[in-house]
Specification:
The protein contains 22 helices and 42 strands. By secondary structure, the chain is α+β, with helices and mostly antiparallel strands. Helix 12 crosses helix 13 and helix 21 crosses helix 22. The longest helix is centred in the first third of the chain and has 16 residues.
């Protein structure tokens, strides 16, 4: 929210020497984060000048310039060259004299005014347009002050008259504090912070008097407070909440179309971040920024019949003010007349009743709409208008009539119109706010500060609440005592709904600096749990091995579901996703890791080894998840509530996933590139298992065993611990890789980290032998379908304790090897802890191991 200083000064008493830093500091004190400051990049001299003469001079390039003599209040007139044609001799114009600085093409390139020779003359200044002064984007011609209602002597300083000396602070308004998206709301917060006197513009006595007079005129018209037909016909309210509970219309006739927006209003709108369009539109925007109440104006002569507020019908369409034809949803709340839809309520008006340059009679609408309905419509069409931004955050339902009267007043004063008080309507169906019980001592216990009863009451009344003491029950021996307060929030604070909200307000207004900073002392014997320590050990081990840790959001779209979801698996769909294109929760981390890889590849990072430790969401078949019974945040839920909450969400085990693509070793002089492959995924699994002391079982799936369709059927390894499956290392199927724009050969690793860490054991240290090792090679001929891991496990068990290491070093198929078989060569290392081992002892251990491989059809190769 941008807040011009002069505008803020209309509702609060500002110090005479007020600065932008002072206003920012005051608003930060009550919880508004400072964003920026805004000012006109203009410095004087800029003065009023009377055009004494205007001599057109055609040029060879086809352009006609005007050689003007301009009285700027000096002893002699100044000669100025001007290319604009929208003024005559005798007009009062804005003149920038030499030394003035105007906005340039960039903030670092200002435009300096100086006397300069052009078109055969020395132009001693410049006659300025609104665009050149930064007031608006209007470039139709120079500013003729008389047409702006400004009549001052030549030489008068125009900087304060045009509002160019004003500036604005910008603060961040959180979504729960929609009342602060207005000068009215920010002024109240400044008053709370500094104690400055505050004047609510919605309750200005003259404004209230004119509202009462208009209501009386409507009463005398014979139809109560409604002579313009307005009907709210919401037959399908969202969550049982009617779309509109307040709807006010007023009419102004005979607006002078030639009247411009006054410079002070254009300057304030510009500083507030809105461009000046036309007087009627600018007035509605001005009142919206002032009161926080969105206003919509209709061309009264283009309306057909009365107004009906209703939901859209199936197949109904509307062309909105941006020229887009929109097919409407039956959830959309519409403003309609006898022809059909003329506006998306609270979001954007329709093109057919738009205010144009020909409009002279205007119907003003000020209404209160349901927050949820407006928010859904704005998101559905991605229409983030200033009106929808305020409605979805909460608008004061009791300010609509005052805002409508304010628009009427300005259009009468500035536009020369006449208020038609006999043509209007005011529907009011606002529910009274319920009182909140605030127990004595509750705020002290929650915030940790001892507040006096007077502080609590004064603070709550200052923010607009009605506060009354509640009494405890009378005992037999003494009179009743104060047990707390009953607090009724004001109409402009829909965010105040619980006693915790009230406690937050007391803490905010009295000062966050009063809350003590106390670091709790950790009790002895606490720290990381074993599971946390192991997860950190895994992450540190993989990072140390050269992988890069990433963090992805746990949301995925339909593409990830289609590619990675296995048979019988289901994904959790969110009821209200942050991104409609990603409505599902991931089952495993790989499903979102591929997105991170795709983004990195699109940015030229082609060699990737990345990993992530995160939660997977794995619903149990037949279970329905979700709960509407969410406890408040101001107290710890009881055990029954916690159990119900845990039951409402699916199991969420910790998973680890890694992805490898590109080259593990880049091409170098004399060294060819070595690409990543599934072997790197398997090696990474072995590495992290060893890091936490777990023996990992790796096996190739059987030919008739089902595997995930995202995995390459011939390049997949299943991982297990103690006979329990815990994960997979695989190359992505080419179709799966192509679905995410990843190269062929991309490999992944996914492990259930909870299952892996639960299998850790205490590692007993093994003394290092000082005796030499005996090494041998062993070549076996085995059936083609034999699994190396199973062979090694059987051999190691049978060879006995002398076998220190056994690893595969070669695989051969070809001449000399029977068809349907392969040759495997292993490097063996034997060692005894207490003596030098002989080759005979090593051979005996090797043959013992070979004897166990007969069950696999293995024979020693000749």
């Amino acid at each position: 929210m941008r807040v011009p200083i002069s505008w803020l000064g209309d509702v609060v008493d500002l110090p005479e020497d007020v600065t932008l830093d002072h206003i920012h500091a005051a608003l930060v004190k009550v919880g508004f984060e400072e964003e920026d400051v805004h000012a006109f990049a203009v410095t004087g001299p800029i003065v009023a000048g009377r055009v004494l003469s205007r001599a057109p001079e055609p040029q060879s390039n086809g352009k006609t310039i005007n050689w003007c003599q301009v009285d700027v209040g000096e002893s002699e007139p100044r000669g100025i060259v001007c290319g604009a044609q929208n003024f005559e001799a005798g007009d009062l114009v804005a003149v920038t004299l030499p030394g003035a600085v105007l906005p340039g093409p960039t903030p670092d390139e200002p435009f300096l005014i100086a006397a300069r020779k052009t078109y055969g003359h020395v132009s001693d200044g410049m006659i300025a347009s609104e665009r050149e002064l930064g007031l608006s984007e209007e470039h139709a011609g120079i500013i003729v002050l008389g047409r702006k209602g400004i009549d001052v002597p030549p030489g008068t300083d125009l900087v304060p008259i045009l509002g160019l000396d004003d500036a604005a602070v910008e603060v961040n308004v959180t979504p729960d504090r929609g009342y602060a998206l207005s000068i009215r709301g920010i002024g109240r917060e400044y008053s709370l912070s500094t104690g400055a006197a505050y004047r609510d513009p919605a309750f200005e006595p003259g404004l209230l008097g004119r509202m009462a007079a208009a209501d009386e005129t409507l009463q005398h018209a014979g139809k109560g407070a409604a002579t313009f037909p307005v009907t709210v016909n919401d037959v399908a309210p969202i969550r049982g909440r009617v779309g509109s509970d307040v709807f006010t219309v007023r009419a102004v006739r005979g607006i002078d179309r030639s009247r411009p927006t006054p410079p002070w209003m254009a300057a304030r709108l510009k500083l507030a971040g809105m461009r000046s369009i036309s007087l009627p539109v600018d007035v509605t925007n001005y009142v919206m920024l002032e009161f926080g109440q969105p206003i919509h104006g209709y061309d009264l002569d283009r309306l057909r019949g009365g107004i009906v507020v209703r939901r859209a019908e199936p197949g109904e369409t509307l062309t909105t003010l941006d020229g887009q034809l929109r097919r409407l949803s039956t959830e959309d709340l519409l403003i309609t007349d006898d022809r059909g839809a003329i506006g998306l309520a609270g979001v954007m008006g329709g093109l057919e009743t738009e205010i144009t340059d020909a409009t002279t009679n205007i119907l003003i609408e000020a209404a209160h709409f349901d927050q949820v309905s407006i928010a859904r419509t704005a998101r559905r069409y991605k229409l983030w208008s200033e009106a929808s931004k305020r409605y979805e955050r909460g608008v004061d339902p009791l300010v609509a009539s005052a805002a409508a009267q304010r628009v009427v007043d300005l259009l009468v004063e500035l536009g020369g119109g006449t208020a038609d008080d006999t043509l209007g309507a005011r529907l009011m169906n606002v529910r009274a706010r319920e009182a909140i019980a605030l127990p004595a001592g509750y705020i002290d216990g929650l915030i940790g500060v001892d507040y006096t009863a007077a502080e609590v009451e004064d603070t709550l009344r200052a923010i607009g609440c009605e506060v009354s003491r509640s009494l405890s029950e009378r005992s037999e021996t003494k009179a009743p005592e104060a047990a707390g307060w009953l607090v009724t929030p004001p109409s402009w604070r829909p965010d105040l709904a619980t006693k915790a909200d009230l406690a937050e307000e007391v803490a905010r207004i009295t000062g966050y600096d009063r809350i003590p900073s106390v670091v709790p002392i950790a009790p002895p014997g606490r720290g990381l749990t074993e599971a946390q320590r192991l997860r950190r050990a895994v992450a540190a081990s993989l990072a140390g091995a050269g992988l890069v840790e990433v963090l992805t959001y746990p949301f995925m779209g339909q593409a990830e579901v289609d590619v990675f979801q296995g048979p019988g698996e289901a994904a959790v769909r969110l009821a209200n996703p942050l991104d409609g294109a990603m409505p599902y929760l991931r089952r495993g981390v790989t499903q979102t890791l591929v997105g991170a890889a795709r983004r990195n590849l699109s940015r030229g990072l082609t060699d990737l080894a990345i990993f992530e430790i995160g939660r997977g969401f794995q619903p149990e078949p037949g279970r329905v998840y979700g709960s509407d019974a969410l406890p408040g945040g101001d107290a710890r839920p009881d055990e029954a509530t916690l159990t119900a909450l845990y039951d409402s969400v699916p199991p969420q085990p910790w998973h680890l996933a890694a992805l490898f693509t590109g080259n593990a070793v880049r091409r170098q002089p004399g060294v060819p590139a070595v690409p990543y492959g599934v072997a790197d995924a398997v090696a990474t699994a072995r590495h992290l298992a060893a890091a936490i002391g777990v023996t990992l079982e790796i096996r190739q799936p059987a030919f008739d065993e089902a595997i995930n369709s995202a995995h390459h059927p011939g390049r997949t390894a299943h991982l297990g611990v103690n006979g329990r499956a815990i994960g997979v290392a695989a190359e992505l199927h080419p179709r799966a890789a192509a679905a995410f724009d990843l190269p062929r050969g991309t490999s992944i690793l996914e492990i259930d980290l909870d299952a892996l860490t639960s299998a850790t054991r205490v590692i007993a240290p093994t003394p290092l032998s000082t005796y030499p090792a005996a090494t041998q090679d062993m070549s076996l001929v085995v059936p083609e379908r034999a699994v190396v891991g199973e062979l090694l496990a059987a051999f190691t068990a049978a060879a006995g304790p002398l076998l220190e290491d056994a690893r595969l070093v070669d695989v051969y198929r070809g001449q000399g090897i029977p068809e349907g078989t392969k040759s495997l060569t292993f490097a063996l290392r034997f060692r005894a802890p207490d003596r030098t081992l002989t080759q005979a002892e090593a051979t005996e251990a090797k043959l013992a191991g070979v004897s166990a491989l007969g069950a696999f059809g293995a024979v020693i190769r000749d």
